[in-house]
């Protein structure tokens, strides 16, 4: 049996709740992926409960980017911490060090990101290798990954890793990532990544050099024009000749039946936009279009 | 009871928010401590006042309290907004790197005060 071991910046963390069983098991125990003795291969697919348990386990392994304000919004339900209805275990935050309190076995960093302050505790490594901790000074921007703890109603973070950040654009990126994750957890990932730009975008802060950024996609999320474009695409996917696609009149009629009233000029503008985005292409002439994805 | 009061006081101060603002938003935070990331344009009055351009392109005066410290080209000032809404009394500053993207930051700040303010602000 193999056990997963999580590792954060050198601090080994073993969560006993993350056992996974793979490989040869002569007793035929464990998940449906085990092979029995004598060459018998059990081809039973993993059960739904096993899949859900794995997913829940994976969720607990994931790092949730949050602001300190969000940490204070975490709700405790039956011993489970939840934020935006998602179980929270490990978090990642970025902020500046306000103060450092050194004890014999641990260091407490008070971190502020403008949305609040929180104490983040790190145990001093017993091997004496605390170079990373020594790098962290007051007023420095740091990225902290850790586990949320609550004591007497006050939240704190048990640090797995703390790293000094020299690129301040990472702070901007982190705040945007908090918003994006919040949207994903509250509205679902299908809505978040509906736009191809969002799914294909490289989330590296060093790529934020022009307007084609996470912000533009988030602005589109709230844009009524996007709703119109979605409906136009829906029409192109369902109406018209299979080979040529519908012409403008057919599209306008279909939109009218959906209670969407726009004029021909507006439709041409939106179709032009969708063409440039790669969502539509012309077929026999400039009047007929088809979607790139059905 | 004193111990519990201390816990409450600590938890209250820990949840205090210091909002990040651009030049336009400073008007709404007069007398309050804010965080202003900006680009330094000039120093005046014996280097006690910094003329800065905020991330949304507005000109603001920052009254420095640490005038002996050299300013970097881009700086994040923590301070109290003046009654005119266009000046800041510095309480702390953090140097930013020259490659800090103020335009992108400005858009992020707009989101922080807009639809997603519940993730960043107390009210």
Molecular structure report:
The complex is a heterodimer of chains A (294) and B (123). By secondary structure, chain A is α+β, with helices and mostly antiparallel strands. Chain A contains ten helices and 15 strands. In chain A, strand 2 (6-8) and strand 3 (11-13) form a beta hairpin. The longest helix of chain A has 19 residues, at 169-187. The two termini of chain A are 44 Å apart. The model of chain A is unreliable at 1-37, 193-205 and 207-212 (pLDDT under 50). With 123 residues, chain B is of the alpha/beta class. In chain B, strand 2 (33-44) and strand 3 form a beta hairpin. Chains A and B meet through strand 11 and helix 4 of A and helix 1, strand 6 and helix 2 of B.
- State the largest interface: A-B, 32 and 32 residues
- Structure summary, number of beta strands of chain B: 6
Order of helices and strands of chain B: HEEEEEEH
The Rg value of chain A, from CA coordinates, equals: 26 Å
Number of strands of chain A: 15
Measured as a percent range, the helix fraction of chain B is 10-25%
Number of helices of chain A: 10
Question: Low-confidence segments of chain A, ≥5 residues, pLDDT <50?
Answer: 1-37, 193-205, 207-212
Shape of chain A: elongated
Question: How are the strands of the largest sheet of chain B arranged?
Answer: 2-3-4-6-5
Number of DSSP helical runs of chain B = 2
- Category from helices, strands and their pairing of chain A: alpha+beta
Q: What overall geometry of chain B do the principal axes of the alpha carbons give?
A: globular
State the end-to-end CA separation of chain B. 29 Å
**What's the story with the biggest beta sheet of chain A?**
5 strands, mixed, barrel
Structural class of chain B: alpha/beta
Helicity range of the residues of chain A? 25-40%
Mean pLDDT of chain A: 74
Q: How large is the share of residues in beta strands of chain A?
A: 25-35%
């Amino acid at each position: 049996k193999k056990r997963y071991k999580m590792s954060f910046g050198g601090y080994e963390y073993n969560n006993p709740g993350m056992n996974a069983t793979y490989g040869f098991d002569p007793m035929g125990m464990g998940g449906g992926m085990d092979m029995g003795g004598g060459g018998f291969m059990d081809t039973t697919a993993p059960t739904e409960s096993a899949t859900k348990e794995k997913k829940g386990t994976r969720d607990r392994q994931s790092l949730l980017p949050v602001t300190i304000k969000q940490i204070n919004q975490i709700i405790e339900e039956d011993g489970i911490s939840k934020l935006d209805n998602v179980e929270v275990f490990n978090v990642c935050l970025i902020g500046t060090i306000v103060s450092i309190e050194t004890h014999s076995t641990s260091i407490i960093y008070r971190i502020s990101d403008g949305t609040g302050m929180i104490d983040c505790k790190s145990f001093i490594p017993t091997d004496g290798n605390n170079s990373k901790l020594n790098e962290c000074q007051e007023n420095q921007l740091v990225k902290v990954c850790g586990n949320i703890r609550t004591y007497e109603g006050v939240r704190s973070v048990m640090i797995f890793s703390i790293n000094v950040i020299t690129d301040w654009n990472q702070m901007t990126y982190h705040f945007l990532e908090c918003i994006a994750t919040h949207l994903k957890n509250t509205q679902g990932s299908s809505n978040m990544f509906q736009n191809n730009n969002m799914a294909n975008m490289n989330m590296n802060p060093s790529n934020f050099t022009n307007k084609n950024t996470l912000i533009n996609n988030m602005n589109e999320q709230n844009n009524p024009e996007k709703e119109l474009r979605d409906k136009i695409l829906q029409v192109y996917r369902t109406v018209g000749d299979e080979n040529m696609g519908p012409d403008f009149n057919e599209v306008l009629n279909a939109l009218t039946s959906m209670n969407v009233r726009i004029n021909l000029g507006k439709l041409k503008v939106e179709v032009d936009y969708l063409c440039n985005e790669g969502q539509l292409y012309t077929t026999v002439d400039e009047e007929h279009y088809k979607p790139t994805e059905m | 009871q004193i111990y519990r009061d201390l816990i409450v006081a600590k938890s209250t101060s820990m949840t205090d928010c210091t909002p990040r603002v651009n030049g336009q938003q400073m008007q709404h935070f007069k007398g309050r401590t804010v965080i202003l990331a900006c680009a330094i344009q000039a120093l005046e009055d014996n280097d006690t006042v910094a003329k800065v351009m905020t991330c949304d392109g507005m000109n603001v005066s920052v009254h420095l309290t640490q005038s002996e410290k050299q300013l970097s080209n881009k700086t994040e000032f923590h301070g109290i907004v003046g009654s005119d809404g266009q000046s800041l009394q510095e309480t702390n500053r953090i140097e930013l790197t020259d490659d800090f993207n103020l335009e992108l930051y400005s858009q992020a700040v707009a989101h922080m005060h807009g639809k997603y303010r519940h993730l960043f602000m107390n009210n």
